[in-house]
Each structure stands twice: as structure tokens, then as C-alpha cells.
User: What shape does this take?
Amino acid sequence: MLLLTERLELSPLTQADKLWIVEMHQDPLWKQFIGNRGVASVDDAADYIDRVNAQINEWGYGLLAIRNKKTNAPYGVCGLINRFIFSCPDLGFALLPIARKQGIALEATKAVMDWVEMEEEMHFITASTHPDNTRSQRLLRKLGFEKRGPYFIDKSTPVQTLFWRNSDYASR
Assistant: This one.
């Protein structure tokens, strides 16, 4: 899976990404809005990358590394996650601090949603955010997602706000 935009390349994570994956998981905003996902070391990051790529191999989609197309510098992750709660994937994204406030999240998520529109079996997509993550909520609204209400993922994750978007394919 490879997605290209004007500035970005979205592609599967590699084991060479371990260091910045640890950095991203230790970022205060990640911890505040996403929570502890058990990635505190390079070995944890290697396992995380293997799990993410296993989902791509099984489902044909997953989280992708966001990279600067010219320099290959990592910016974060964006893609679809199968949470097995709905019959559709969940849009997920997170940026490293150096990539924030530059329109990178919007550009990356638009690329993923453009890909979704071409997939006939994806009739709707969900997304969830921490209730206090207003920047992510604004981004989801720009993408056409509608707020649905509180959402409980599991006991280790605080209540989230659920968003939902019908695929344009579903209306054809």
C-alpha cells in the first residue's frame, strides 16, 4: 500500500522506523489523547511495527508511515485500523511534534479517505478522539465525519468521542 500526495508519501512502516515510533509513543500529546500502547523501547517498537504490518497483510489496509516525499523524514502515522467493533475500519493518525500545524494531518488523512472512496466494500468509516482533542475533531469534520457521541473502546482507554462518515461509494 502506497499513497502519494503533493508533499507526502504514506507507506508501510519498516524496522528502520523503530526510533521515531518510540519517540511518537512517548510524546505527551500521544499519551494524553491516545494513551499508553506499551511502546517504550526499540524492541517494543519492533513488535508494534510487526503488528501494524500484519494487519496490512491480512486486511489490505493499516497504519502507514507519513514521510516527507523529498527528504524521507518521518512525520507520523495515518491509516485505517480494524478495531473489530464495527464492520468497517477506523481512521487513525498521529504526528510527531515537528510535523504539527503544517497541514500534514489533513493532507495525509485526505489521501487515505480518497483511497477509501475507491474501495467498494467500505461503506462507512469511523474515527474516535479523546473528548478534549479538539484539533483532531476539527480535522475529522473537515473530512466529512459527523460526531456520534461517546465511545468506549476498552477498560484501559478513556472514553472517546465517536465520529462516522459514509463512503461516497455507498451512495452510488
